[in-house]
Amino acid sequence: MKILVLGSKGQLGLCLSEELILTQHNVNLSSRVEIDVCDFDATKESITLINPDVIINATAYTAVDKAEEDQAAAYLVNHLAVSNLAVICNELNCWLIHLSTDYVFDGRSTRSYVETDDPNPQSVYGISKLKGEAAIEASGSKFLIIRTAWVFSEFGSNFLKTMVRLGVENKRLNIVGDQIGCPTYARDIAKAIVCTLPFLSRNQESGIYNYAGNKSCSWVEFAKRIFQEAINLGEMKNMPEVVSIPSKEYLTPAVRPMNSRLDSSRFEAHFGYKASDWETGISSALKY
């Protein structure tokens, strides 16, 4: 299959690049320099020339707080550009694999979210991502939408890398303890996506799937696990004092879901790839 990865320089895009090179697929990697998805006409021209069988869209506007003010930019990348991609895919009879987010939910559930739960985003970022999902579904294209959460990796800027830096610089850290989610290692997402590819030529139906960590934790618990592994690997010398604080003491422009837990069992049952083992992922990312 001919695969086109959009957003190949982001943390997921870089992981996808390294995983896809191990396959027999014809892989085309595109960063914003090669294909700027916000330039709709140029995007269509470039994709038409490549004529891929599958587009993996790893592009996104992910500055959650900044999106509250820079709404136009968030909607352009997460909604309008995605809509354009979906229309192109429909015209070319090409699959679109698109990454979405736990932020499409309001976080008020007392259990893990499944794919059939009603979305109710509480932030501009979440609304823009849900509008992108809706545009894909309305386009008539063949698609897989994969919702994930709390993504970290060895690349770019993310919670793991921030915590290691802050843990080295500070003896005491205040971290939110009442938000619960499922951390997800980006390389596991990449491997999960690779596992879906053989299904796309076998009358695979379009649909939405959750793919996230195999168990839940708070940001405090996530941070402590990062610190411990960093100490084990010699990245840090001492465990900082971690103070758990409520969300109300760490106000942000965008509302965060209190419960970001995603149930990945449907993905595992259908594609045969297990939910992300994020604890092992922490070690892998720190060793990279």
How many domains?
A: 1
**Strand percentage:** 15-25%
Q: Report the order of strands and helices.
A: EHEHEHEHEEHEEEHEEHEHH
CATH architecture: 3-Layer(aba) Sandwich
| Overall outline | globular
* Mean pLDDT, all residues: 97
Number of helical elements? 9
CATH class: Alpha Beta
Task: State the secondary-structure class.
Answer: alpha/beta
Low-confidence stretches: none
Major beta sheet summary? 6 strands, parallel
The beta-strand count equals: 12
CATH topology: Rossmann fold
Radius of gyration: 19 Å
Helical content stands at 25-40%
Q: State the distance separating the first and last CA atoms.
A: 29 Å
The strand line-up of the biggest sheet is 2-1-3-4-5-10
| CATH homologous superfamily classification | NAD(P)-binding Rossmann-like Domain
Short description:
The protein has 288 residues and is of the alpha/beta class. The protein is built from 9 helices and 12 strands.
Summarize the structure in words.
It is a single chain. It contains nine helices and twelve strands. The chain is an alpha/beta fold and 288 residues long. It has a single domain (2-157, 184-215, 261-280), classed as NAD(P)-binding Rossmann-like Domain (Rossmann fold, 3-Layer(aba) Sandwich). Strands 2-1-3-4-5-10 form a six-stranded parallel beta sheet, sandwiched between helices. A two-stranded parallel sheet has the order 6-9. Helix 4 links the parallel strand 4 and strand 5. Helix 3 (71-92) runs parallel beside helix 4 and helix 7 crosses helix 9. The longest helix has 22 residues, at 71-92. The radius of gyration is 19 Å and the shape is globular.
